[in-house]
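Crash report, auto-generated. Payload:
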Amino acid sequence: MDYFLELFFGGLTRGSIYALIALGYTMVYGIIELINFAHGEIYMIGAFTGLIVAGVLTHLGFPEGSMLVIALTCAVIWSAAYGFTIEKIAYKPLRGAQRLSPLISAIGMSIFLQNYVMLAQTSDFLPFPELLPRFAFLDRFSGVLGSSELVIIAMTALVCVGLSLFIKYTKIGKAMRATAQNRKMAMLVGINVDMVISATFVIGSSLAAVGGVLIASHIGQINYFIGFIAGIKAFTAAVLGGIGSIPGAMLGGLILGWTEAFATGYVSSDYEDVFAFCLLVLILIFRPSGLMGKEKTQKV
Amino acid sequence: MSNTMNANGRNNGFPGFFLTAGCSGFPEALKKSLIAAVWFVFLTFPIMVIRVNTIEDTVDWRWMNMVYVAVAVFFGSFVWRWLLARKELKKDETREENRVEALMTRIASDKRLKLIAVAVMACMVAAFPMVFNLYQTNIMISCLTYIMLGLGLNIVVGLAGLLDLGYVAFYAVGAYAYALLNMHWDIGFWAVLPLGAVLGAVTGIILGFPVLRLRGDYLAIVTLGFGEIIRLVLENWGDVTQGPSGISGIDRPTLFGVKLGVIDSTMYMYYIMAGLVVLTIFAVNRLQNSRIGRAWLALREDEIACQAMGIDKTKTKLMAFALGATWAGMAGVVFAAKTTFINPASFTFWESAIILSVVVIGGMGSIRGVIAGAIILILVPEYLRDFAEFRMLLFGSIMVLVMVFRPQGLISAKRKVYKYEPANTASAGNEQ
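Recovered output after restart:
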């Protein structure tokens, strides 16, 4: 039973991070129908910014407690700035071009950012300081649920609830939903679509940065390549849940996390990724637009 | 906005237009560039300037990087705006072909010129390994391999409009087919080459069948998933594939049963590859204008209208997958024979991404475009080896820049146009 619970919480932690990154994919896709391949790199840059800020703060002798908050804030700010800039450089001039062009631009951006971080920082694995707090009351459950896992799960839940409320009730959230439904119509009723798209990138990137700092602190090391596999997994999660749907991305992330955890725990750790992709293929064959995606009627 | 740019461009000539492109005047342009410089300094500050070592607790401040970024962005932003404004200007004017394209059409339309051009190209291709050394020839072989892969993927993505991100899977199937058959039963290159093509096609149909219902990006991610599954299986199924350490000592192709030395066999390989590429170009060209080729175009443009015209969607899609994979299977066999060593690391998602970039950067659906794309994407990084560190950085930037300033690709595909000319006699449907 303990083993089962350990895998359960491990999968939940992993799934939470996938969900955080998947939200960025799904929001961007919902609005401009673009697979933002550079999103995984934003997550990686968030983790690196967190590491750099934490390193500087330790050097300056800041207290441990404040460090997580400052590092997380800086990571969010810079990742959001990167997301904003990438959209302006690589995607905005391509609006209205044929569909594959922005995708290639995104793949190019992703290669560029990986090598930029590798050259400016290092290609080695860097140890990431332990920023997440330790709770004494969890010692009894050691081996089942660690403090960092609890923080990640709680934080993700908080962020997801916050995002849902934001999209449901604020003005810009409504504008986002309107733009996702019909961009031209949204323009006609006076929504500044460029601004909405920028906001989407900023929010998506911030979520990825939160995920990046949390998981890097949990695992304890990062390098310039972590964005790639996390990005692919998160995109898988987004498609699993039905791309464009926000609750779908959260659900997809969790399902993917659990699948991986249980498959590695009970079957074989070699085929971890194979299980994830097989699950994806199976679900898409039986539900071609994902778990919570809407079946769009096609028109001529 | 384009009107003011026109005015500026015409009145001040090149330097004026360059400095004020996209702005109302030089002061505004200066302000914009300054803002861009400040923004990028802020953006790159943590990654470019600070380097921390959390174990020894040291912080390394590299302020010079900040200056480089500021200067580069300040001047780069002028170029950027100028290029963007030029793109807008071109859009306003009537969509004329540019000079290179016009020249190409002229050559293609005149039979004698076409013959001469083909002959010159053939001589150049044939003489290449004699003129250049082994290293260059090797690079050229990989370039030809990518042309073949690109032309194959072009069938799936460019013609049929199915976004396939796992194309490398078929390439891997071909390569491993040759490696394993050669290792266990000592079967030669020429026997496996057609077998690789068939295996590629069969894998294409097997993978294509379950995903027929999916559209657009769902298809993209599922094909990506298949690509990764095949790679992971190759990596973990050690009993058969020897896992991550790969298979080495694969035989090079023999010339009528004679084994060749390294230099001779590289040249031989080059000619095999050149021959295969010519075959591919011929086949794809014929396919494009065939019944199935036009069915692919129709499918790409509109699925429902295409079905209404009586085209069997399932069959057409499966044909695209199978025919696309055929070339990848063959290219895989050649790859294994050329390198004599393969492992799963050669078949990652990046390989698929690069093949896709060859197709899209070159110009989707256009054979000349794919060739140009392969030459640029494969040769540029090879010759940039002097900047080894910055190679991939430049590679990424080129991908972004080509897409931003020429989203239709370097050489865009031309539609066949049928013109009715009453002056002509009864045969009205004259091709142009």
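Post-recovery validation: Chain A has a mean pLDDT of 85.
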